[in-house]
Automatic annotation (TrEMBL):
Keywords of this entry: Gluconeogenesis, Glycolysis, Isomerase
Protein known as: 2,3-bisphosphoglycerate-dependent phosphoglycerate mutase
PANTHER family tied to this protein: PHOSPHOGLYCERATE MUTASE
GO molecular function: phosphoglycerate mutase activity
């Protein structure tokens, strides 16, 4: 039984490019972001990966990324589920603000705490812990059962919703997850054991003509996971 789970952060968005806090604001991909999504699909296709079901958020940048990935691997009609549970972290009053302007208004240290802490909320928004509180139940009740039935599952979502998932999969502490950065358009490939723990993790960060890059956290330690 395969028990395959692949996570992909959406490609660069228009507001990523403009250095704006995005959160739940529904903005599209840039040309660079569309190419990142297509490259993610090419990398998955190059490794012969095909899927049985896919999940994404309710936001267009993740949905468009998924569309482009599926187009590249030739599975545009794949069963799909979209849910707000996989949305990006809600940045509340910071949403739509330039990050440099926010630092000028509240100070660099305070903005850094809002962005990188585990359980401190920005004004009117969510912490990473809050984001996990909606991501984890959805993973446990919807995504994980598909994986454990042997279905190959693809998830296209956001930096913080996926950080919450990786925190569980990689058994990261709250301190460790605040240091985790997920690159746009880079597939994270997990194979799970029968007890739902991680058997192996690969990061497809090389161009199609290159080779896989194993996660440093799991290199030589996949059996323990």
């Amino acid at each position: 039984m395969d028990r395959l789970l692949v996570l992909v952060r959406h490609g660069q968005s228009e507001w990523n490019l403009k250095n704006l806090f995005t959160g739940w604001r529904d903005v599209g991909l840039t040309d660079v972001g569309r190419e990142e999504a297509r490259e993610a699909g090419r990398r998955l296709k190059n490794h012969g990966l095909r899927f049985d079901v896919c999940y994404t958020s309710a936001l267009i940048r993740a949905q468009h990324t998924l569309d482009l990935v599926l187009d590249e691997i030739g599975q545009t009609g794949l069963e799909r589920h979209s849910d707000q549970a996989l949305n990006e972290r809600d940045y509340g009053d910071l949403s739509g603000l330039n990050k440099d302007d926010a630092r000028a208004k509240w100070g660099q240290e305070q903005v850094h705490i809002w962005r990188r802490s585990y359980d401190v909320q920005p004004p009117g928004g969510e912490s990473l812990k809050d984001t996990g509180a909606r991501v984890w139940p959805y993973y446990i009740t919807r995504i994980l059962p598909d994986v454990m039935r042997g279905r190959r599952v693809l998830v296209a979502a956001h930096g913080n919703s996926l950080r919450a998932l990786v925190m569980v999969l990689d058994k990261l502490s709250p301190d460790a997850v605040t240091q985790l950065n997920l690159e746009t358009g880079i597939p994270l490939v997990y194979r799970l054991n029968a007890d739902t723990t991680v058997a192996e993790k690969l990061v497809f960060s090389e161009p199609v003509a290159g080779t896989d890059v194993r996660s440093p956290a799991l290199a030589g330690d996949s059996a323990a996971r």
